[in-house]
Amino acid sequence: MAALDVINQAGEVVGTIELNDEVFGIEPNQQALYDALIMQQASRRQGTASTKGRSEVRGGGRKPYRQKGTGRARQGSIRAPQYRGGGTVFGATPRSYGYKINKKVRRLALKSALSEKVLEQAMSVMDKLEMAAPKTKDFVAVIDAIQAPCKTLFILAEADDNTNAYLSARNIPGVSMMTSKAINVYDLVNANKIVVTSAAVKEIEEALA
């Protein structure tokens, strides 16, 4: 089992923690990571693009000219696709781009993302993250103490009271925060560093091991 130092909010080492190799020590599967990232990005698309077909465009109820005798091609409506202002053929309509991948692939992608952070030494374990009051200034002091880079993701335990910490961090650019149950591949890969509390590590291992 790999072991990491456990730090406190002042950046001091207060102990060590052994990580489960089944979750934090596998060889990252790049294909699973790719599949999970594409799935997440597709699910985030709004899918609100909309066009009107010839039956939806206003006007065009009257036949523009008689059927025969004009020498021109027969026409039934000025809202046909070949007319300016006419309907669109096979145009975009509101739709969902979301889809699902297999549960095993999703779990493998999460393990791969976590293991990659450990390999890159981009993961820190904190004993706990508690804020007495929702103050951004106090949270900035914590970030400076642990030398967290831009785009740091804090992962807290589901059972902890995270309200003050969340309120303190939400206005800081590049800092994001979520609970262990909300972790996903996109946010893990997108972060330059992840800071996980000891309790959150246990919850992640219980969920993925």
Task: For the structure shown, list the relevant keywords.
209 residues; 2 domains; six-stranded mixed sheet; 7 helices
What does this structure look like?
It is a single chain. By secondary structure, the chain is an alpha/beta fold. The chain folds into two domains: 2-46 and 99-208, Ribosomal Protein L4, Chain: A (3-Layer(aba) Sandwich), CATH 3.40.1370.10; 51-91, no CATH class. The protein has seven helices and six strands. The protein has helices at residues 21-24, 30-44, 103-119, 136-145, 163-169, 185-190, 198-208, and strands at 2-7, 13-19, 123-126, 152-156, 175-179, 193-197. The chain has a six-stranded mixed β-sheet with strand order 2-1-3-6-4-5. α2 crosses α3 and α4 (136-145) packs across α5.
- The CATH superfamily of the largest domain turns out to be Ribosomal protein L4/L1
Assigned CATH class of the largest domain: Alpha Beta
Percent of residues in helices comes to 25-40%
> Strands of the largest sheet, in order across it?
2-1-3-6-4-5
Round the Cα radius of gyration to an integer and report it. Answer: 27 Å
Oligomer: single chain
Q: What's the CATH architecture of the largest domain?
A: 3-Layer(aba) Sandwich
Kindly estimate the percentage of residues that lie in beta strands according to DSSP: 15-25%
Integer count of domains: 2
Unreliable residue runs: none
The succession of helices and strands, N to C, reads: EEHHHEHEHEHEH
Number of strands: 6
Largest sheet: 6 strands, mixed
Kindly name the structural category: alpha/beta
Total helices: the number is 7
Mean of pLDDT: 93
The coarse overall form would be elongated
CATH fold-level name of the largest domain? Ribosomal Protein L4, Chain: A
Q: Distance between termini?
A: 13 Å
